[in-house]
Amino acid sequence: MYPSLGYAAHTHTSPLVPFQFKRRELLPTDVHIDILYCGVCHSDIHQVRNEWGNASFPMVPGHEIVGKVINIGSAVTRFKAGDTVGVGCLVGSCRTCPECQEDLEQYCDHPVFTYNSPDPHSGGNTYGGYSDNIVVDQHFVLKIAANLNLAATAPLLCAGITTYSPLMHWQVGAGDKVGVVGLGGLGHMAVKFAHALGAEVVLFTTSPDKIADAKRLGADSVVISKNPEEMARHSLSFDFILNTVAAPHNLDAYTALLKRDGTLCLVGVPDQPHPSPSVGNLIFKRRNIAGSLIGGLKETQEMLDFCAKHNITSDIEMIPIQQINEAYQRVLKSDVKYRFVIDLQSLKAG
Ligand code: NAP
Ligand code: ZN
Ligand code: ZN
Q: Can you give the residue range of the structural domain that contains 250?
């Protein structure tokens, strides 16, 4: 077992504090990773605060991990010591069901999430990336080009794939008008991807001070979503809208903007349900409301390769782990440009 140090929450109301624990000995297909950087996802806050009702403590969050391989198990073929690698939201799945066979491990009925998930190996819970090292089966480890800005690459492992996957599934491309709702960690990646795919991109925000940034990131225009006249100007015009908002809100305001057969895809996971959408808004134009969950391992690797090709990374604010509780407060105020990333050197330095 490897003695490990991380930051954990011990209850849903307490701050994260230093926490010692152990990682498992390497199984034949395991990769042992020294963690360099870990992004801070809004899902970390939902789970630490038990807003999804499934929290188990102590909880070491973190599923946007970039690091270097320290060592490999005897049967590992895809990695060697010194490789730069990533780990996202998944560290296990059944590997045999139709979803796993189709490279859609995120939709497996027996997923093992990177943290706050029953761990079949330890009998306890998985511990995530707010820590100095992690042991992961090679199937769930991604290859990362060492020439990328590694800190700015970490958020691709969740915010990146969660926005890339629906854009691929609904085949967004040139000629499409695409909306992105919310300019946070997920939203700013969605704007970059939709722009790189050649779509016309409209960003919906509640924060007027983000207009200039949204345009710099690739939005063709920006709508202040609290302003009904601005919203109405876009009625019946969108092929696809990706909604990343982490709070319940009225979805009718967005379905009304879709063309016939258009899709509003939800990726934000609020702690309370959205008010029910109006059926009339859906049936008269055969519109769709859909959802999407992160992405499979194959598609995550494709997304990383797409990012390397198009020079896409996340816009980040780097923090030492000692500032994690203040960072959570700022995420809750939508005050981050546009993802916090923890430099794990700060943990190792004490
Ligand atoms: P984030 O950085 O906090 O961004 C959310 C953005 O939503 C904010 O920046 C803000 O943008 C907007 N917003 C916040 N409160 C709002 C409100 N009351 N009304 C309208 N807009 C509001 O969060 P994130 O890390 O991108 O995560 C977003 C959501 O996706 C979370 O619920 C997270 O758990 C979920 N998530 C889902 C998946 C998945 O697989 N489906 C994966 C990762 C995360 P503006 O300031 O521009 O309005
Ligand atoms: Zn996440
Ligand atoms: Zn499966």
A: 160-291
